[in-house]
Structure formats: structure tokens, C-alpha cells
Amino acid sequence: MLKRITSSLRRRIGAANPAPALFGAGGSLHEIRRRIADAYLRGDGIEIGALHQPLDVPASARVKYVDRMTVPELRRHYGELADKQLVETDIIDNGELLSTIGDATQDFVIANHFIEHCQDPLATFQNLVRVLKPGGILYMAVPDKRFTFDVDRPCTTIEHVMRDYTEGPDWSKRQHFEEWSRLVNKKSTDSEVEEEVRYLLSIDYSIHFHVWSETELLELVAALHRLVRFELEIFIRNGIESILIVRKAFC
């Protein structure tokens, strides 16, 4: 069933994807993002975890910024952001849950380089779509692990994210931190790994819990399509990432 849905999505992307004609092959990563935003974003919406790289949106789009911490807290928690210009947090909330945001209240949701940080990607996607009005737009950029510091990590399987969804993500959390420590931070001994994992768990550090290449990401989209009604407007490679534009079903 999953293979059939994935094949269908591939045919639709190959035959009807408007991205190359609308946005061209040229331009920087952020320029392509901006062109797509200009075409799709209107009204009132939110951006989750924008930090120092908020999406450049058209004047027709009014954005409130969601994060789990205030700017001073973010600077203390993430030392690598200490000298960055961060957007002010308008709404303090867990981006995976969006518990303070009502159903069908947003014209758009922006979640760039966010879903890989989520411990339960399928439930998170449901919540991102939940807060959209019918016909609303979800704008997502997802890094391709082959072109990032995640290059040595194995792609997350559909079976893994389904288990996170059905059982909750606690069963795999330590495993993700251990993999991060060994394959991203290159800790070489068990004692080094254990020390780092304990520290990261203690501060609830937001690593890339899950990673995908373009093909595996498309499989994830197919799995999501089984849980939530939406139209995939765009799936396009953009440098080190893929951009997805999802429209919430009208009924």
C-alpha cells in the first residue's frame, strides 16, 4: 500500500510539479524559499522555531513566531546561537503540540528545519495541519541528511516513526542521543558517549531525532497521507533541503 501511494506521489510530482516553471533553477537557497513563499503565503500564520533564519515572507503574510523558549532562554540553552540575531518569540509553546493554538485558526504554518527535531513526526504533522484553516498552507523545508552533519547516520525508517506514533517516542529517545553522539559529534569511547548523552538528556537538547534523504522523505509524506487529508502542492529539491508545500483539505 505504501509503495503504491509513494509511486502515485512520484508520478504527480514528476508530471505536475509547478516549481521548476514558477521558481526556476537559479537562485540561492533563501531566494528559492522566498519565491515559493511569495506564491503561497497570505493572511495570518505562525512560524515555528525560526531562530536566526525566519522565512522571508511577502507583505500579504503576517507572522507570529512560536518557540518553546524566550530569546534569552534560547541563547542560554543553545550556546551556538549566542551571537545570532534571533526573532522575538510571540508565542511560547511546544511546536510539536501547539496546545495554545486553536483548531483551524491559521492561514499558514511555516516549519523549516523543524520536523527532524520532533520526537514524534507523525503526531507533529497532525498538529501542524490541525491548526490550519481548510485550504491553509503548511510550508516545510526539511534537510537532506546526505548534505548535512547527519551524513553518517542511517535514514529513519517508516517503521520507526510509526512506532514512535503508536507507542510514544520515549522508547527511542536515548538511542537517538547515542547515535548523535557517535555519528555527529564523533565521540569515540563508550564513556564519552554516556557522559554526553546524560548531559543532553538532562537539558532536553533539541537534536535531529530523525533524518531523511529525499527518497525517504517522500516515503514519509506517503505515510502522512494515510493519517491526514491534504494536497501536496510542491515537493522540490532546494540545495541541502527539500521544500514541501502542503494544502489542508477543504473537507
What does this structure look like?
The structure is a single chain. This protein is 39% helix and 20% strand. The protein is of the alpha/beta class and 251 residues long. The protein has a single domain (2-152, 209-248), classed as 3-Layer(aba) Sandwich (Rossmann fold), CATH 3.40.50. The chain has a seven-stranded mixed beta sheet with strand order 3-2-1-4-5-7-6, with helices on both faces. β4, α5 (121-130) and β5 (132-143) form a beta-alpha-beta unit. α1 packs across α9 (214-225) and α7 packs across α8 (190-203). It is globular and about 50 Å long. Mean pLDDT is 90; it is low at 1-16.
Sheet/helix structural class: alpha/beta
| CATH homologous superfamily descriptor | Vaccinia Virus protein VP39
Helix content: 25-40%
Overall number of domains: 1
- Shape, per Cα inertia axes: globular
Mean pLDDT: 90
Strand order in the sheet with the most strands: 3-2-1-4-5-7-6
Task: Please tally the β strands and state the result.
Answer: 7
SSE blueprint and pairings:
Blueprint: H1 2-16, H2 19-23, H3 29-40, E1 43-48, E2 61-67, H4 71-77, E3 91-92, E4 106-112, H5 121-130, E5 132-143, H6 158-167, H7 170-183, H8 190-203, H9 214-225, E6 230-238, E7 241-248
Helix pairs in contact: 1-9, 7-8
Features of this protein?
single chain, 251 residues, alpha/beta, Rossmann fold, seven-stranded mixed beta sheet, 9 helices, globular, disordered N terminus
